[in-house]
Amino acid sequence: MNNRQLFLQHVAQTSDAPLALEIVKAEGMYMWDADGKQYMDLIAGISVCNVGHCHPKVVKAIQDQAQQYMHLLVYGEFVQSPQVSFAKLLTDHLPNQLNCVYFTNSGAEAVEGAMKLAKRFTGRTNIAAFNRSYHGSTQGALSILGDEYWRNAFRPLLPGIQHLEYNNFESLEQITSQTAAVIAESVQAEGGVNPPNLEWMKALREKCTATGTLLILDEVQCGLGRNGTLWAFEQLGIVPDILILGKALGGGMPLGAFIASKEIMWTLTNTPVLGHITTFGGHPVNCAAGRAGFQALLEEELIPQVKAKEQIFLQHLKHPAIKAVRSVGLMMAVELESFEVNKKTIDYCIAHGVLTDWFLFAAECMRIAPPLVITEEEIIAACKIICEGLDVVTK
Ligand code: PMP
What we know:
The protein is α/β, with parallel strands linked by helices. Strand 1 (about 25) and strand 2 (about 30-35) form a beta hairpin. The strands form three sheets. It has a seven-stranded mixed sheet with strand order 4-10-9-8-7-5-6, with helices on both faces. The chain has helices spanning about 5-10, 45, 55-70, 80-90, 105-120, 140-145, 150, 200-210, 260-270, 285-300, 305-315, 340-350, 375-395; strands spanning about 25, 30-35, 40, 100-105, 125-130, 160-165, 180-185, 215-220, 240-245, 255-260, 325-330, 330-335, 355, 355-360, 360-370. It has two domains: about 5-55 and about 300-395, Aspartate Aminotransferase, domain 1; about 55-300, Type I PLP-dependent aspartate aminotransferase-like (Major domain) (Aspartate Aminotransferase, domain 2). Bound molecules: 4'-deoxy-4'-aminopyridoxal-5'-phosphate (PMP). The site of 4'-deoxy-4'-aminopyridoxal-5'-phosphate has 16 residues, from helix 5.
């Protein structure tokens, strides 16, 4: 059996039609398959490789740290300099009240930790989340996931969860002094790139403050420069009580975090029961990689270029089959007629060396979320292939 056959036989699948491309190398904007074919990556591992694949400084940081030490002891017991310096770097770039970082293995684990923290801090049990939101696949994260069809398969889920309408002012009335936390994506990603109404976001912040409810913003997908500012909430004019990060945080390695004030975070520590424990969360090699990736993101001044690159995409994504393009920086959803048209166009793009896909809750939308290092020439070349694909598929 070849590797592809072995993969289908022995590696658990998450879909009944996996892409099953065998990639042997990735660098910057590109990946290469086992036959040497090159793919321009418009997905960035779902918003992971913001500084590009295998950034040399990230690779070097991994090598250096792996030679020093890897795993020592369960999270939070030893002083590990990669964790300390990355937490310091992150908090130096955050508003004062977000000054304490809990590193996790993944975005979903950070979501779980944030929900537990909100329950402990407020002494309340109810959590409100939004329709069309995605926060991960673990049981707690699944309970708040904003799609009934997905949730139904795994009931019973967590009790005390309310699902509200994103961007809907009336929905905010359901937030009360019983609500421990409201969790929202700063820009809904898997819902097909839905940015919040700024007035609504402000009202949400005010309602949370008035009811003593913690506001949790999930920036796992939209944070770390993708939206054109380091943090997506900078464009919303509000600050969350808890910020959730993941994906790009590890520079390509698995790393998530929930970040709050020391005062809030302390309630997870100062508790008669176990607060949150993780063996590998904040792994020193991953923190070293994350810190190097974060430094590269800033040093290479990638974030100030994001909005201009978004405009180049918008100029070149012109085709009668495109119904709309929703974008916030380099997080874009190209809305097409149907999933069928989208899937065929995606297949055309992949066959022609451009990697893209669709969104979990918006299958008719093509995802464009490339590494932020993408150049003008690459954007134009990618848009040309997408439009050619649409010509072929919709002719
Ligand atoms: N929140 C958001 C907004 C996400 O997009 C994702 C992953 N797609 C998660 C949380 C969960 O992250 P992970 O897959 O690392 O658990």
